[in-house]
């Protein structure tokens, strides 16, 4: 029975991923409580406490929301390989990913660019 349920969950999970993506409404406000764990690496200009020089990380502020969503889903699934990003993406729900993608996409090109990036 347990195995059956697991199989069902996997089957449903597989299909709902694509369905959900279209249904989820990004919530930028909600993302503000979720990006704390990204800031340490993907420093946002407004958050000067970040230490981007420790890592060579891509700048994601101002990036296209769909691109960020895809990247996070790929890290989550392991299609894109990078250990720390996989570990982080694995903790994010579909809704988290949509929210965070919208949050970063909303960073404008005029946002002062952190010179370390
Ligand atoms: C431990 C440091 C670290 C943390 C924390 C971190 N990232 Fe990353 N992230 C990286 C690195 C390094 C890369 C580049 C990995 C690679 O080469 O694939 C990356 C890549 C990415 C990319 C792909 C960018 C591109 O241009 O392809 C996205 C999107 C991203 N991170 C989003 C996030 C989000 C959202 C969070 C918070 C939920 C987060 N990251 C937290 C280090 C981090």
Q: Can you lay out the helices and strands and say which pair or pack?
A:
Blueprint: H1 2-23, H2 28-32, H3 36-39, H4 65-77, H5 83-89, H6 94-105
Helix pairs in contact: 4-5, 4-6
This protein binds heme C.
Notes on the protein architecture:
- By secondary structure, the chain is mostly helical.
- It has a domain at 26-104: Orthogonal Bundle (Cytochrome Bc1 Complex, Chain D, domain 2), CATH 1.10.760.10.
- The protein is built from six helices and no strands.
- Helix 4 (65-77) packs antiparallel against helix 6 (94-105).
- The longest helix is centred in the N-terminal third of the chain and has 22 residues, at 2-23.
- Residues 14-19, 46-50 and 113-117 have low confidence and may be disordered.
- Bound molecules: heme C.
- Heme C binds at residues 35, 37-38, 40-42, 55, 57-58, 60, 68, 71-72, 80, 82, 84-85, 88, 100.
- Heme C (HEC) is lined by residues 35, 37-38, 40-42, 55, 57-58, 60, 68, 71-72, 80, 82, 84-85, 88, 100.
């Amino acid at each position: 029975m347990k195995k059956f349920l697991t199989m069902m969950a996997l089957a449903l999970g597989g299909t709902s991923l694509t369905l959900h993506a279209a249904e989820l409404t990004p919530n930028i406000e909600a993302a503000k409580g979720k990006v704390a764990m990204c800031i340490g690496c993907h420093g946002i200009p407004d958050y000067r406490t970040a230490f981007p020089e420790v890592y060579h990380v891509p700048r994601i502020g101002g990036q296209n929301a769909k691109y960020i969503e895809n990247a996070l889903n790929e890290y989550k699934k392991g299609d894109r390989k990078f250990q720390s990003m996989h570990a982080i993406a694995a903790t994010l729900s579909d809704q988290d990913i949509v929210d965070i993608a919208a949050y970063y996409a909303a960073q404008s090109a005029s946002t002062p660019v952190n010179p370390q990036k």
